Amino acid sequence: MGIFWDLIQQDELQKQEAKANNLEDRVEQLEQELKATRTLLKKTLVALETHLVQDIDGDGKMG
Hints:
Mean pLDDT: 86
Distance between the termini: 24 Å
Number of strands: 0
Structural class: mainly alpha
Shape: elongated
Low-confidence stretches: none
Oligomer: single chain
Order of helices and strands: HH
Helix content: over 70%
Number of helices: 2
């Protein structure tokens, strides 16, 4: 699944690059993508910890 995720990300990056007209726009887009990625990662971690009933990230709580 990792290779498919990489391909999807690469495609999205290429689309975003085509849309960005200048460096400031590109930085803003990257910041938005990073925020979305962090949100998705947190949701995934919560779901995984809930499913496994285990503290994976070491924060002392599950989910």
